[in-house]
Amino acid sequence: MLRLTAQGMHLCDGVTRREWLRLGSLGLGGLTLPTLLRARAEGAETGHPATAKSVIVLFNSGGMPQHETWDPKPEAPKEVRGDFGVISTKTPGLFVGELMPKLAQLTDRIAVIRSMVTGDNAHSTSGYQMLTGVPHVPLNRENAGPGKPNDWPSLNALVQALRPTRGGLPASIALPRKMANNNGQDPWPGTDAGFLGRKVDPWFLVCNPNEENFTMPGGEFLDGMAQARFDSRLSLMQQLRQPLDQLERQATITDYSNYQQQALELIAGGSARQAFDIEAESPETRERYTRTHYGQSVLLARRLIEAGVSLVQVQSVSEDKNRPNGGGWDTHTKHSESLKGWLMPTFDQVTSTLILDLEERGLLDETLVCMVTEFGHTPKFNKREGRDHWGRVFSIALAGGGIRGGIVHGASDRNAAEPALDPVQPCDYLATVFHCLGFAPDTIVHDVEGRPLPISRGKVLDGLLA
């Protein structure tokens, strides 16, 4: 079932604390859901057919190391290349880190970008770039404040604004936790709608689909209340609301009414409830995704895009806070131990399973899978057997949804320290995602003051397109 609290991951020397997902009352005797469920967004004109109906973003926050994943350097000194070797892949001439044996056999479906650059070594501000496509001002601002009204909107929020809701579900969902600063509470900047306004804030679910008897948000309410009682309270609420009809010209009242109605649709809607019924999956499928918090979150993402959600972002989550670095990707200590012991086996198994599962269901060609992070790790190890933050060059990968597999875009230098060929900015990556969704980068959205702004200032990476 959905929990109302969750732990944020340790990033650097942060203290992990419980993070609360605040749920707004619907006036139905204890029924709770996020009050800001999105209003149906206005559609936008597209300049070309979409190749992707849906997007799943696997965001491994903390920093995925380029050396041990997509950009190994076997000829570099050991203090650079690390403790692991390389393996051949399905793509002739392409080698990846040995800790990705399953993904190595799927590179014919994957495009690798080896020249991502943010130039920022702080989790929150480099993350802001990867989420919005815009450099944070200032750069290298660790624990930057949570999103402000004049922040650029995230990819999630823009999809929420550009795509209509389907099946009673929001167009964009992020789970199973919010991206938080080192205090475990304050969200990163760039995770919300920024200047687009609260009505298109993406919906964040703090949940653990690996829990026994997991259910959809609000599902425990309906399970414990007779339908007749629910209908009676709904009727009463509608009667009480009638005097407010004359006030609906006020934006806040109208917006709240819209959010409230969509919340009711989500709770009562059969298709939405089915999407969250992860126990409907076969035991074999659930095992393939691994019985972990992260693995079951990725499985839930697949179910949500099947139900009509346009974009689901899955944040990485620690399975054991007592491990080095809080069990996450921010491997300042015991880097190799962390990668081999738990990080890479889970990532390799879960991601390869998602790609194959989508393919088996006939969904890979219409679902874009993005394997991203906020930055990479330093070329050399530190004195604590770890690697530190590195935004000057790192790697990401894309698959499905109109992406041409079996290719590598860009290159880093001999130590994976600087871009050597075709550097890619976050705005270019996001422009490519928008292109696959059917939106040109110069598609215009309007901020809360009515000013027109393009959804991306980047260029589409045409070489990645099928």
Q: How many helices?
A: 12
CATH architecture designation: 3-Layer(aba) Sandwich
Helices and strands: which structural class?
A: alpha/beta
User: In one word, what is the shape?
Assistant: globular
Low-pLDDT segments, ≥5 res: 1-45, 221-225, 240-257
The CATH topology: Alkaline Phosphatase, subunit A
CATH superfamily: Alkaline Phosphatase, subunit A
Distance between the termini: 40 Å
Percentage of β-strand residues: 15-25%
Assign the CATH class.
Alpha Beta
Give a short account of the largest sheet.
8 strands, mixed
- Tell me roughly what share of residues is in helical segments: 25-40%
CA radius of gyration: 22 Å
Describe the structure.
This protein has a single domain, classed as 3-Layer(aba) Sandwich (Alkaline Phosphatase, subunit A). Helices cover 27% and strands 15% of the residues. It is built from 12 helices and 20 strands. It has helices spanning 78-81, 101-104, 123-132, 155-162, 219-224, 227-241, 251-268, 270-275, 283-288, 293-306, 335-360, 426-436, and strands at 5-7, 18-20, 24-25, 32-33, 54-59, 86-88, 95-97, 110-116, 172-175, 203-204, 311-315, 367-372, 376-377, 389-390, 394-399, 407-409, 411-412, 419-421, 444-446, 452-454. Strands 10-9-11-5-12-15-8-16 form an 8-stranded mixed beta sheet, with helices on both faces. Strand 17 and strand 18 (419-421) form a beta hairpin. The longest helix is centred in the C-terminal third of the chain and has 26 residues, at 335-360.
